[in-house]
Amino acid sequence: MRRIDEKLAKITAEDYSSGDFIITFAKDADLLRGCSATGRDGLGRPRPLAAYRADVRRVIESDLADIVLTSLSTAEMLAESGVYARATATPAVRLNDPTDVWRVRGGTYPAHPALPFRSARLDAVKPVANLGLYGMTFYNSPEHDHATLTAYCEFRDIASKVAIRHFLQVSDPKMKIDTGDAEYAAFRNDILIRSLAGVARRERPIFIEVDYHGPAATEELAGWHPSRIVIGITGCPNGTTRDCLERLAQAERHGARLASFSRESFSCEDPVLMLVAMRRVIRDGMSSREAVRAYHDDLKAAGLQPNRPLQEDVELTSPMLKAHSQEAA
Questions:
Q1: Which helix (H) or strand (E) holds 123?
Q2: Per-residue pLDDT reduced to its tens digit, 72-89
Q3: Do 98 and 28 meet the contact criterion of CB atoms below 8 Å apart?
Q4: Which of 181, 245, 253, 261 is nearest to 214 (CA)?
Q5: Stretch (H or E) spanning 31
Q6: DSSP H/E element including 167
Q7: C-alpha–C-alpha distance, residues 170 and 137, integer Å
Q8: pLDDT tens digits, residue range 300-326?
Q9: What dihedral angle (degrees, nearest 10) is formed by the CA atoms of 93, 48, 61, 212?
Q10: Which of 17, 36, 180, 225 is the most exposed place for a label (fewest CB within 10 A)?
């Protein structure tokens, strides 16, 4: 058994403790952004693919992430290198890439409702990983949501035959969605649970990641069927390090049992040190404020320049997080 199976068994048995919280490190941006996924070095030059993949190897070797998510091409390279054979992290592959995640330079794809698409063939994924992410977005549009769920149904048929497990990521749309008098989070919760109600246990995702919309929306999903549906949150949106860590703490307090993290969504200075900070908050119960201070101490010890001064990075800038923080902002 991989570490995630042991943790999921405890979570679904409702025997959860903070040490069972699952963290996914996502490094699949090459499938989303192409050449621009690697970022730039200190001189403003594009980083090579090898440097981008070196981040992945460092995270796997650190043993701080439970799941490491990559594109299929990166997963093949990692499998050939044997790095997973020496680690307890579970390899995972992004199994679909609908058009709303195509974030290429000059592209306008995220401004439009997603069209279903899969680059990776599941029979090609199987030799390197038996777990992957399947992503969906709902728009309150019969045409688009029907196409999304039809593609998901077809995917499950193939995944069952190939024996690949998946987790589901339900992302917020990049444009405003009309949900009448209901908040988008309420619509999201209802359409998600409705969409899974007719899915057999053997085809269900092993867990679900959603955007964090505060305590009530998180508790509603987490409490729906805790022995069958494990809920977590997607990667940190842009903000301060305090925002990212406070969001993590609040989500866990209200029922989330996992979280994803990527440098593509949150531009941290060092992924391994950021994973250390996340574990301090979840496993050690450190406050988000103190975890930011410890993170800056780690950056200093590693000789890394922080993106923001400590006095700025320790602030909460999200009104929602401020409203529900147990600490004085």
A1: helix 122-125
A2: 999 999 999 999 988 889
A3: no
A4: 253
A5: helix 30-33
A6: strand 165-170
A7: 6
A8: 999 999 999 999 999 999 999 999 998
A9: -50
A10: 180
